[in-house]
Amino acid sequence: MRSNRPAPCPVSGGGRSRFRSTSQARWAACPCLHARLRHSPVRAPVPCYPVPTGGVMATIADIRAKSGLRQILEGQPQHVLLAVLLTIGAVALIAPVPDAPRLLGLTGTGWATLSIALALTHQVVVALGFRLQLHRALFTRLFGARDLAIWTAIFMPLLAARPITLILTGWADTVPITGLRWLEIPLGLALLAPAIWGMHSTLVHFTLRRAVGGDHFREEIRALPPVRGGVFDHTDNGMYGVVFLGFWGIALLFGSWNALVVAAFQHAYIWVHMYATEAPDMRRLYGP
Fold first, then answer.
1. What percentage of the chain has pLDDT greater than the value 90?
2. Torsion over CA of 176, 117, 84 and 37, rounded to 10 degrees?
3. Domain-embedded: residue 109
4. Crossing angle of helices 245-254/257-273, nearest 10°?
5. Whole-structure pTM over 0.90, yes or no?
């Protein structure tokens, strides 16, 4: 019977680390793991476990002991600047319609504005949550063992609001993209299909606890091997690179200009989050 256990690292030559049994363990930096986390063109042929080498990775407790305000705020001035510029651009592109029909009390323009506001709220909350948990253990101090569950309960409704408000924008909006429905519908389906596959891969292979940033909370989540299976056999970032294509697909299926503006904003802004918040965190959690 074929084992599901990942093969030893082909670069460092080891298997499972002897340190893996405790959350206080120090982990050595596996070159294969770090190549993947940096989105490097260098790819490991198989996933691997971190193994002890000459150096060791700092634990989350070590990161907290050495961090200060500078580390907490790293990348956030850029985050604020890019968020402001993207918001100004998106709001300028939204097309209002006089006497527009309303859906659940809001016009297409109203839903588009709300969707942008909720995306901003989501990513600001995530930036604060990630940094304050990683560097100050905020949720653990407040909620103890329920810290990750509480964070997930905050994270998921804000995440779900993004596609829901986009759909409502497209449904309520009367401003067309091109008017060529014979073209927009096939393009929308072509973008939505890989996005659904990517979401399935994220839930099944990446898992929810990783998707919400569980490696900021738990050493055992941080120590999990690289993700394989589904969309992650083809890209290191299935969520931002593939799942968010579905936002464009939704806008095209509705043929809605304002939904297309929202989709463009949300996809661009998630990469701001990657650059300004996640990338510095990943360097601290997994090494340069």
1. 73
2. -100
3. yes
4. 170
5. no
